[in-house]
Every structure is written in structure tokens, then in C-alpha cells.
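explain this.
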Amino acid sequence: MGGSGKSSFLFYTEKYLTENCNELEIGREVTETIVFRFDPWLFSGHQDIVSQFFIQLQAQCKRPQQKISKKTLKTLNKLFSYGSCLRAVPTPEGQIAGWGFTGLNTIIEYKLQKSVKSIFQLKEEIKTELQELDGKIVIIIDDIDRLTSKEIQELFRALKAVVDFQNIIYLLAYDKEIVIDALEYEFHPALHTNPPNNNHRAGIKYLEKIVQFEVPLPVIGEYHLKQYTEKTIFTDLFYDTNSDLFDQTRWTDIYHKGLKQFILTPRSVIRLHNSLELLYPPLKNEVNVIDFICLEIIRQNYPKLYNLIKENHRYFIEDNSLIGQLISLSIKPESINTFHKNWIDSIEDKDKLSVKYIMTDLFPSVKKVF
């Protein structure tokens, strides 16, 4: 799930690897731990993801803080060249992954002997050199689930070609369901016209060939997430708000019965907080705080419904003025029912109960429709 803490987990993992490499228990003494990082989402939709993968690794080799021995650097250069050679050599291995390494000859030039080595010979040479390394190479790839399905397929095909090299560890962060769906489409072209089933067996099996060990991140408990939400959004911004504009009992009730459906991760809390920081100050002490938060949640998650409320307020608010009553009488009851049924039908099934509760709390007149 986006915002569940994957990037934070990677950050602290990388920090530990770089600062405490001598404490790692990996069976033998390690003289160096080299950490590379690749964020494919930065290049999504604009450039070839796989080419950028090797370009960014090669660029990181040249950073001053990246202290790499000559022996290791020589092996890395061969690894990049291996990817380049896959494109040109007509072998089953090249046919599987070579398409993903287009243009890699421009990354690092590796002069082969006049009698060109086969792709398998080069791979065995790299394997031997990697086995002799006194360190580990860790490649961290984040935000894979933000890529398009095609880009996810390309990235995992490329990884499949290089994932079995010893002393290279790939640390991948992704939403498993999104990645499996993308890989499922790779195996079953018919799914482009028919939605995938719930089994995802082909996608799971493909992923199992590449990923050897998974670390599912724990979900934040409901109690702790509510505490974090309140600590984050109820800052000095609301310090001197009139007490009659915030009801703690109502807040607790609507949070549990409606809002928590849309506040699922720390990222969603920060997103809400940022919006309130910008939008609330001009209306401070003029609007009910809970009403304002509820409407902002609706705006973020169902903008069409938010605009519908804004443009058709008479369907949601009872206007007791003379003009308001005359307008209300001119609207047929069946038209009102149809209007509300249409926006309710537009809400995702998983959110319907929560949205209904929020809407009936905000607009009591809507209760007549249900």
C-alpha cells in the first residue's frame, strides 16, 4: 500500500548497511559494503527504465563518497557490459532479456577479444569474479509499484537476467498486489480485455523466481494511527479556535465511522495536514472544524462529489428562506431521489458506508434519501 512506510524502511536499512557493515553476520569477513539506489519512478513515462537503471548505477560508481576498490569496479564494469552484450548475442538468454538493455553499449565500453566471447562465457567470468569479492553489493530499488504495468514488466525481466549473481543483493520495495497484477498481464494477454482473476497464479510464480525473501511491513494499528492523525493535524493551527466549532465527541464518532476509511497511512495524514495548513487559516473561527475536515476528505478522494455539493447545494442543505422554500417546492421528490442515487452509485463499494455516514452527518436532510 502506498504510504505504508516502504521508503522509510529502505532509508533506515541503507543507513544501517553503510554505518554498521562490520557488524553484519554473513558468514565471513566483509571488507566493503557498496550500496546503490535506484528510483525508477523518477524516469517513468519519459525514458527507458532499464537503461536508466544501469546509467544511474554507473553514475553512482563515480561519486566521491562511494569508495569502491579497483577490483570491484572492474567486475561492475563487466556486469554493465554483460547487459550490453545480451542485446547483440542471439542466445535464449539474450532473447529473454536482451531487449531491455538497448543502448547500454554507451554506458561503459568493454573491449572484448577479437574472437568474441559468448554471452555465457562472459556471465561465467562475472560469476567467478563476484564469488571472489570480499564484500557485498546492495542495490535498492524503490517505488516499483508507481510504474506503469509495462515498465514493471520491463524492470523485472531485466532483474531476472542479473539476479542470480553471487554477492549482489537486490532490495525491492513495492505493493505486491500491484506488481503481481502487472506480471499477470505479461503472461496472459487476454487479460487486457478481461479483468484478472483473484488467484494471480502466473504472476506470483514469476515473482517467486526473482524474489527469494519477503518482508511484509506491519500495518499501523487503528489506535496509533488515530493518535498520529490527531497529533499531526490538530497543531497550533487550531489553537485558539472557538470551542463551539469543535466537538470532541462528534470527532471521535465520525472518525471511526467514516474518516478512518480514507486515513489509512501516515502519508494520507500528511496530505490532509498540508491541505488544512493552506486552506483553513482564511476561514478560521468561521466554519466548523469537523465539517471542514470532512469536506476536505471528500475533496481529496471524491472531487466530483465535492463539486456536486458546491454546485447543487440546495439538494444537500435545507434553505428555510422564502425563496429557498419556493425553489424546493419546484423540485419533484423523484428528481431529488434520482440525484442522490446517482452520486451514491459513483462511490466505490468499499467506501459507500463511510461516505454515506460522512454525508448524512454533514447534511442531515440527505438522511431522507436513505
About this structure: The chain has a mean pLDDT of 78.
